[in-house]
Write a structure and sequence with these properties.
The structure is a single chain. With 267 residues, the chain is α/β, with parallel strands linked by helices. The protein has 2 domains: 139 residues, Nitrogenase molybdenum iron protein domain (Rossmann fold), CATH 3.40.50.1980; 109 residues, Nitrogenase molybdenum iron protein domain (Rossmann fold). The protein contains 11 helices and 13 strands. The strands form 4 sheets. Strands 9, 10, 11, 12 and 13 form a 5-stranded mixed β-sheet that branches. A 4-stranded parallel β-sheet has the order 4-3-7-8, with helices on both faces. It has a two-stranded antiparallel sheet with strand order 1-2. Strand 9 and strand 10 form a beta hairpin. The protein is globular, with a radius of gyration of 20 Å. The model has no long low-confidence stretch (mean pLDDT 94).
């Protein structure tokens, strides 16, 4: 399938600075990112979303019934072709560059690039315009930004936010997770380590001795047993299991993040 150049399409620029020829009224959308998939449904699109990844679990009803086009980093190109998408929506970090480039040869592909809450707000507004829901997107973005501004964070506390085990890996500098951590009163010690998602050894964890260790539920499913393991490594740290969706899903779920962070402050 080749790109169309008809009056029904127009040029726009995505968050990666790419010029994309998109349909004025997309009717067959494939989403390659869970948080953006959920956003499409939140904005009222149900029939228009014709495909999503295996990780697009919200809302549950759509997760069960919609065609799945593989994982975020391992796409099923035959499945995608069979769905005849007129718009594909992805993300720079969550999707693989080579696969996105291949899709771009055949379909309009709009990409987000999100490292801050402001980026998330821009994405919400941009996608809402793409699908003909501009007012709804602006309102949602404004409500989310206002909600974060009203958060009354406690005095800054040092932390490490773990995303993986064996090896231990952290959310570091220049990440969306780090931006949210800083907004809710945490001083992320991993920003001083090279790499956006750096690895860290047990002795380095012990040496840093953060006030808080946050163990995310995704992408690695940390459990209670990992708290016990890290208590031996960093005995002076307060260790919490946290819902990773609240820190890394950058669509409408950010409304839920605001309420979640209020409860996190009192732990």
């Amino acid at each position: 399938m080749t790109k169309k150049t008809t009056p029904d399409y127009y040029n726009t620029t995505d968050q990666m600075g790419r010029e994309v020829l998109v349909p004025k009224r997309p009717k067959r959308i494939i989403s390659l990112v869970p948080s953006q998939t959920e956003l499409l449904y939140y904005l009222g699109l149900t029939d228009e979303v014709v495909g999503q990844t295996i990780f697009c679990i919200h809302p549950n009803a759509q997760h069960k019934m919609k065609p799945r086009i593989g994982g975020t980093k391992k796409l099923n190109f035959d499945m995608i072709a069979s769905l005849y998408p007129d718009l594909i929506i992805g993300n720079k970090e969550e999707n693989e560059q080579e696969q996105i480039e291949e899709l771009t040869e055949h379909y309009p592909v709009w990409m987000s690039d999100i490292k801050t809450l402001a980026d998330a707000g821009d994405m919400i507004v941009s996608i809402s315009k793409l699908i003909g829901k501009p007012d709804e997107g602006v309102l949602l973005s404004e409500n989310i930004l206002e909600g974060f501004q009203k958060l009354s964070a406690p005095k800054a506390a040092s932390c490490l936010y773990f995303i993986w085990r064996d090896p231990w890996m952290l959310a570091g500098n220049d990440t969306f997770i780090n931006d949210l951590l800083s907004r809710i009163g945490f001083n992320n010690l991993a920003i001083n380590i090279d790499g956006r998602y750096p690895q860290i050894a047990a002795d380095a964890i012990c040496k840093l001795s953060p006030q808080y260790i946050l163990l995310s539920s995704e992408p690695y499913p940390f459990k209670q047993k990992h708290i016990a393991e890290l208590e031996l490594i960093s005995p002076n740290s307060k260790i919490l299991l946290v819902d990773g969706e609240m820190f890394s899903w950058y669509g409408n779920r950010l409304q839920m993040s605001i309420a979640f962070f209020k409860t996190l402050f009192v732990q």
